[in-house]
Amino acid sequence: MTRTERPRLPPDLADHCPLCRQPAAQFYHRDRSRDYLQCKRCALVFVPSEFHLPPEQERAYYDLHENSLQDQGYRRFLSRCANPLVAELRPGSEGLDFGCGPAPLLARMLEEAGHRVALYDAYYMPNPAVMRKPYDFIVSTEVVEHLASPGAELQRLWGCLKPGGLLALMTKLVISPERFTTWHYIRDPTHICFFSAHTFRWLADWLSAELNFVASDVIFLRKKFPG
């Protein structure tokens, strides 16, 4: 059976949400390649695991990207997250660029602003040692939409933040079912999780974090001090 011939999904599915682990999801959208479900609790829209690319195909798709350390357009794009983050940081802060890719330009930009930045990427910088220490900030741009288990990964990152630290995320947000159907963001086969403002509000409650929508696709979560 081809994907275009697959039967339609029932309206209520026993497919666990990869963010909050809610056991039931509802049909949200389908295109020629994939189905999309929405969690009833946190509103995450996600692609069922049967449509995920195997690791070798996912890596091959990432290898097609042509971002470089000298790309001024890429620098302008990242500055939408970097500039407000730098404005929030104390001098000489230490952070982590999670999902930095093969050209960690964002880390360089933050280092140019006087901060120290460790690098981690599952394919290009797989250094687990950097995930075992505390940081003043963690930044992750255009990454969460690629995560098969965003709940576990975000909880792991949260555990690496010092009290008062910032988790800075950059990802496009789901606006409505109508706009989702023509959204360019879902055409990337490595994009499998789609957050909305509602989803981030749920996440902030779950993490007991202070939430700030810095821009339409830049979200800051601050870790509160205990007590």
Summarize the topology.
Elements (H helix, E strand, L loop, with lengths): L11 E2 L11 E6 L4 E5 L5 E2 L8 H9 L8 H17 L5 E5 L6 H8 L3 E5 L14 E7 L8 H10 L1 E10 L6 H4 L12 E2 L2 H11 L1 E7 L2 E6 L4
Parallel strand pairs: 5-6, 5-7, 7-8
Antiparallel strand pairs: 1-2, 2-3, 3-4, 4-9, 8-11, 10-11
GO biological process, one term: methylation
Pfam family, one: Methyltransf_23
Keywords: Methyltransferase, Transferase
Task: Identify the overall geometry.
Answer: globular
CATH topology: Rossmann fold
- The share of residues in helices is 25-40%
Helix/strand order: EEEEHHEHEEHEHEHEE
Second-tier CATH architecture: 3-Layer(aba) Sandwich
Total helical elements: 6
Rg (CA only): 18 Å
CATH class: Alpha Beta
Specify the structural class. Answer: alpha/beta
Largest sheet: 6 strands, mixed
Give the strand order, joined by hyphens, for the main sheet: 6-5-7-8-11-10
Count of all domains? 1
Low-confidence stretches: 1-14
Protein name: Methyltransferase
GO molecular function: methyltransferase activity
Keywords: Methyltransferase, Transferase
Pfam family, one: Methyltransf_23
